[in-house]
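Subject: mismatched residue count in predicted assembly?

I count 745 residues in my input, but I want to confirm that the predicted structure covers every chain. Input:
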Amino acid sequence: MLNKIFLIAKREFLTRIKKKSFLVMTLVSPLLILLFYGLIFYFTVNKSIGEEVKNIAIIDESEVLQQNLESTKTTLFTFVSVAPDKINDLLSEASNYYAVLNIQKNSKGEISYQLLAKDQPSIGMVSSIEDKIAAKLKDFQLQQKGIDKELLNQINSTQVNIETKKLTDKGFEEGNAGLTTIIGFAGAILIYFFIFLYGVQVMRGVIEEKTNRIVEVIVSSVKPFELMMGKISGIALVGLTQFLIWVGLVAALSGPVSGLVMQMMDVNPTEIGSMAQDAASKDTSKMGSLFAGLANLNVPLIVGLFLFYFIAGYLFYGALFAAIGSAVDNETDTQQFMLPVTMPLVFSFVLAQTIVTQDPNSTLSIWLSMIPFSSPIIMMVRLPFGIPTIQIIASMAFMIAGFVFTVWFAGRIYRIGILTYGKKPSYKELFKWLFQKN
Amino acid sequence: MIIQINNLSKKYQNHTALSNINLDIPSGIIFGLLGPNGAGKTSLIRILTQITEADSGTIHLDGTLLNRSHVQAMGYLPEERGLYKKMQVADQLLYLAELKGLSNKEARQRLKYWVDKFEIKTWLGKKVEELSKGMQQKIQFIGTVLHEPKLIILDEPFSGFDPINAQILTEEILALKEKGATIIFSTHRMDSVELLCDKIALINLSEKVLDGAVPQLKEQYKKNQFEVQFEGELILNHQLFNLEKSDEKHGVKKISISTLQKISNKEIISTLLQSDINLLSFKEELPSMEEIFIEAVNQKNNLQDAK
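Triage response: the counts match. Full output below for your records.
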């Protein structure tokens, strides 16, 4: 039996990785990901790209700015003095002023600001001017009250950092919530996408065999259950291969590619380095706590749990997707059956980001990490906060029982479904298939 | 006997597919499983190939109760053909043979034989979807027999074949029989297999109506009817004959007569020649398989009505 499952898995694996689309997907998508992040980085560093320098004339009758406002990269301020009825001339076609900032003081001493522009100014621009003026006014006030600006900055940068330690058998140990949270979330996201992408591939594969009519030939040689398991495991191997290639590619390419991006951007690497250093020094204590307790990180537990839920979760859902594929003749008919399968998956993914992260040890979180429909994702997210061993064991036991059940359940539907053509079955009929004799 | 079927029954939710089928299929022959669509042929084949299970009854293959190890001994060509469209021809055939238990090496060796026979060397690297329908049918046939099964089950093998390919297929089937394989041949086009099949079974509405060797069945169901062609005036002896049909073309008369009691051909001819006629041809009209089927079904119904 294992021999036949192996043969089927081998075929699934080989035909899929030989496809051009596999090569394209595998090689192009990491490049796209890198390009995507490269572009985001590029535009974040060079905000001014795409924005032309704008000249803004300031008419300050109130003298509140004392004829002094520093220009920025994208806005050049010029203080002018014109009669109120001549303001329009400043914005004529020939003029290179984009806008006029009119600052006036009324009889009660209140100051009003008006930006008259050639077109509707962007909110970003308006707020940046607002900030600049506000900062200027604040400085003036500090000067008037005789407060040293440097001193104030010092006072403002006061920070409090709480160090977290959790009670373990060995006494208080430094927690590692920061890094494990990231790892846990990354694991949850990977599991979520893996189940979705490859589960649907299982379903498509089953429908393909059914519409091709090859299935009747195959099941005269192997049992439907063997065919189903071979298909599910073959596709799992394709997914794992793709995943490993990506990890390798991203690791190998991220260096040279980011170098290339920097060259393209004409950015001095040391500049970036110092920017990063600045950022780091501001936040050293936070970064410190992020990596604190790295030594305490239980790598085997994390990797072990990830692999377990990665595979078990995929088997659990993959079998259900195979059952859906066997029950219908074409992909359009799958909608109705897809919903009850994908709902719990999406539901747990959403809960993982909200309720579970806020209170990872609430009764709801614990229950969600026991139910096999949600446990692969929820357990990954709960991981950083520490899960009692007994709960891990219970969750894994439920998970195993869960996929044994779905594989059985799917196998029962599959064996009837693959040989049944025509009308889309109802849920009632599917239920009957479960107990129908072969 | 390669196959012995005893009291086989199979029910689906809403209908009976097979009821109490008893059938023996001798080894090394071509066996025709005939009957209209929906009679239960495919249900029987699916039980034989262990795709489904019977509700009751037994099947023995070569004297042992049907089990998973028999899968390798059978080759099955279903009515609805299909291959993996995106897979290369060679990979596909090797895969099918490996699923039947052949090693990759063995499968490659046996493939060589068929590649030479059908001259398909240039196809091997092509994907199935690149081949014409006729080519795909040939590939599927090779896939059915590549592992050299001793029992080959063909469900409506000629459907979708053009006359030339049908001829090639017929020759291959006969060649396989020569080599000692047993072939079960299922079709609803009853006349198409008369010449090919050694024995047949007729199935109707989930029941076996009759079975036996083709010549014997014809003998059994013949109505003592003869076709005579002649020139001149025939005076028919109505005490001996019944006129069933008569026809005249270019002065040649063609009649069908049946004898009212059993008399020898010699006697018939000499009686006919008593008239002043020029006898051109005389032949016994044997019933077609279809006629036998209708007759047998009617008899069975009458029998049941009588009960």
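The domain at 54-156 of chain A is CATH 3.40.190.10 (D-Maltodextrin-Binding Protein; domain 2). Marking this ticket as 'not a bug'.
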